Each structure stands twice: as structure tokens, then as C-alpha cells.
Amino acid sequence: MPRPLNELQSLAKQVRREIVQMIGAAKSGHPGGSLSAVEILVELFFDHMKIDPKNPGWPDRDRFILSKGHAAPVLYAVMAEAGYPDTPLDKLNTLRQLGSVYQGHPDVRFIRSLEASTGSLGGGLSLALGMGIAARLDGCPSRTYCLLGDGEIQEGQVWEAAMAGAFHKLDNVVAIVDYNGIQLDGFVKDIMEVAPLADKWRAFGWHVMEIDGHDLSAVRKALEEAESVKGKPSCLVAHTVKGKGVSFMENNPKFHGTAPTPAEVELALQELR
Amino acid sequence: MALKTKFELKLGAATREAFGRALVELGRENRDIVVCDADLSHSTMTTYFAKEFPDRFISCGIAEANMVGIGAGLAYAGKIAFVSSFSAFVVNKGFEQMRVCAAYPHTNLKVVGTHSGISIGEDGPSQMSIEETALACSLPGFLVLTPADEVSTKALVRAAAEHIGPVFIRTGRPKAPVIYESGQKFEIGKAIELLSGSGVTIIANGLMVAEAIRAAGTLDAEGVSVRVLDMHTVKPLDHEAIRRAAAETGAIVVAEEHLVDGGLGVRVAQVVAETVPCPMEFVGIHDTYAESGPASELMEKYGLVASNVAAAARKAVARKR
Fold first, then answer.
1. Structure pTM?
2. CB B77 to CB A135 under 8 A?
3. pLDDT grade, residue B1 (50/70/90)?
4. B140 — contact with chain A (CB < 8 Å)?
5. B-chain residues within 8 Å CB-CB of A128?
6. Active-site residue B162, yes or no?
7. pLDDT grade for B213, boundaries at 50, 70 and 90
8. Cross-chain Cβ contact A131/B73 below 8 Å
9. Residue A217 is inside which H or E element, if any?
10. Alpha helices in B163-256 (DSSP H)
11. If you classify domain B13-177 with CATH, what class do you get?
């Protein structure tokens, strides 16, 4: 039974509030690329993926890798809301503090329920391929989802992995590109153009779908389509807005890696009521 | 005494050949063994595994970074993943993945470099790996192994598969002198005393173990009693064997087919400094790259031969108080 969209929408708003609060409390972190990925993660964790948060080691579970590891706050908030045993909801605001399980970037040493430690860009899709190959060898239905940043795909390793994923016909792997158009130094088109993005993935042999990454039903539909594609991996090019949901963060490169001030946190929370 | 004859050695299989054979044996016993290679399977000898277990052999093309990442992904999902290429490529191009996807999360990844050192000969310095012991040892939690011959390679590849956590194994291209009889027991982190002298200790690994034994023959004829330790595990080091060597022989030579900077020698020196300080000499490559040429001539030119090991031992002995 798919989750009602209005339920997912209110979860998305709650996750946005948590992202702003935890990064505000930490006084450092990456709000923009966390907010742009909210609907993608909410749809994956609360609707599409076959997971059992109470039993994170379930061998047949679907897996999620946050290759753009700096968006850790969105992953932490979603996992905390989902009820994993090692992602306490009441500790989200300890993000980035000494002793917190909520490390600056995802770290399996602190949260065993995470599928991988990430943070150095370009590495996650290779891990996803390894997990996809393992599932295929074991005859296991597990599917692996990997979220990449649009700036991240400037890394050469991503294209080594893109080539290998298609070559090995890994139809149990889905790459999702959070195409928000902004990276640390500014707009992606001014730093190192990645367009035409869908064409690139298509040329590498992937089944490509372009969607509005904030439209939950579009994300859901694309994930379902990916599941029906056989013999090749799928790539969702998700058009998103950096800083989505907070007016003064939207499309503002400053909020790639700058925490909101206490006053900005208040403003943001008013908008996210 | 593990040797058939005391100072003379016959030639056996290359350590890369032994690695390839060991993988097949492991693959027959354990379905979770998966092997990745980057278009060098006929040189790394993973081709034997590929032939017998095509489903569990993952061709990664000439893309080492992605290969190490795939291996780590397999390991995250419960496999015992071996990734292999020339040391010069898999360690240098895959280093960041060894760091972030293997060392830091402590995944069960086994990285095997072949064609290590300068004994690959004619291909020259771009293919010669002389830095990778330093690189691999710098990664927290990695085990670093450098077997000397066929028997030790097979045993240590098996030990690596049984160990839970990341391992780097350094193997070579040329045929390696036979050091051990089959059945010899190996334990990760435990040096093997091949000759038990009292006047000086030569600590070596890889191809330099044979040179150490030959040097011991020369020194023996001069009346110097030599202890030879095969330090097949560079990390974690056998502190106790090193401490005893320093205390009981009072002089140590370390011989390795690797840069002296960051290699076995400086790691042994740290233990000596912390336990029983004694004169030490270092045989290895000193802050330079080699060149093309026949392996034996290169080893001679760069001092990686018994005569140079013996000369270093004489120097160390002369410095004893």
C-alpha cells in the first residue's frame, strides 16, 4: 500500500524543520543540498524502499547510499523519523558535536544502520555497484539506491562507475542525481558544466528519467519505472532547487555550506510551519 | 630450520602466481570470495579464478578507483572481496578509495598488488611500485603483508581471507627463490626466524629474504653469526621478535625492495628506538626512481643484492660498542 501523499508531504516539511534546526545548532553544515533532496529521501525511506528500520541488518533490505555525504542532515532526519535503533530523534541537534552519532558526514562506525561511510565525493556509485553485484550473486531481491550531487559528478570515478554499471547490466542499481545547479563555489554551469546530464547517462547505457525532484508522485513513479527496467541500471535526473522550502536559501550558493544564524533559523521555521 | 639447505636456494614460482593459485583454492571452499581485476588478470594471475568462477570474477576495465570502490561495496554486502592490479596502479589510483571505503569504515576488502618493486625489470619506473608499503601502512586498521615465496604467499592470502578487515598484500613479478617447505605455518604479525645467529640480525621481506640468507652465508664464512627474520607482516609488526633481535644480537640490518622512506626499515627502527636501541643499517631504494633493464641487473645496480646486505651487516656490527 503506497503511503498517502499528504502524509509524505507533512513528513517532508518536518524533515526540513529538523535539517534547519540541526545545522543551526551545529553552527556549520550544508543546508542547501540537504533541503534539495528531502522529497527524494522521504519517498525512498517512507514509501518505495523495502526496509525494516527495526531490523536494519535484514539481508534482503533495499540499500541507500548518500554519495553526496555532505547532505548528511537530510539522511539523519529521515532515518530518525523512520525509527532506526541507532538514529535517536531527540539527539538530532547534537549534529557535529564531539561524541554525537551524527557525524559531519555519514560514518558507519557511529551508526551501524547506515549502508556506507561517505563524504569524499565520487565514491558512492562504485559502492552501490558492488552491493548490486553481491545481491545478484546471492539471488537476493535487494535493490541499491545512490544519491549523487550534480557537482559531484564532475568526479571521474562517477563515470568509471557509470560505464561499469551498464556493462554489468546492474538493473538492481538506481542512481539519482540531485540536479540543484549549485555547488560550493557557485553555479554548476560556471564552475564545470555537467549538461547535458540526461544525455550523458543515456550515452553510458543507463535508463534515464528526468523528473521534478520535489514532486513526490513523480519520484514515486520514476522509482517504480526503474524497477521494471531489466538489463540496465536506471538514473533519475531529479531537477531540484537548492535550499528548497526556505525562501532566502533557495538558489543561493551561500547556503551550500553555511549554517543559518539563530535569527535565520527562526525565519526558516516560520516559513516551514 | 625451515630451509632445505642452509644458504643455497632454488628458484620457485612467482608470488603473483602463488596468489592466483591461492585464490582458486579459496574460491572452491568459500562462495563468498569475489575477485575484481582491472584488465591485468593475465599478469596478476587472477585469470585462474576467472576461468573457474566466471560469475564471481568482476572485470572492472582500466579503472582502478572504481574497482576498489566496487570491492568495498561487495565487502559492505558481506562478500570477501579481492581487488587486484599492479601495485603501482591499484594503490596509487585506488588510494583514496582504500582510505575512505576500506580503512575508515574497516570493510572486509583485500587489495593485492602485483609487480611490486623494481624487479619487474624492463617496463621501467612508471610500472615499478616502490612507495606502496608506506602508503598502505599509513592507513589505520590495514594489515600489510609482503610474502617471500610461493608457500608463504599461499598461506598469507588464506590468512588475509580469514581476517575480518582490510588487508594489502604485496607480490612480485619474477620467479621467487624457495624459502619454505610446504606445511610451514604462518601467523599474521609473527616473524619467522630462518637462521638463528647471535652476531647481527637481518630483517627482510619479499625477494630480499633470499638475499638476506645468501648474505648470511657470506658472513658465516667470515665468522659472523647471523640471525635472519622474514618480516612478512609489515603491519602489525612483530615487536617481540624485533626487541629480541636488538637485545640478543645488538645490530640490525633491514633489507627491502622498496623506498627506505616509509618502508619496513623505518618501521622496525621505531620499535628498536622504543625498546633496545642498537646500530641499524638500511638496504633499500634511497629517494630515487629506477630505470628499465633486466631485473637481476637492476637489483645489482640499486643495491638490492646479498653482497650489499652483507656490507651493511659488517657496518652495523662495526658500530656495536
1. 0.97
2. yes
3. very low
4. no
5. 73
6. no
7. very high
8. yes
9. helix A216-228
10. 208-221, 239-249
11. alpha beta
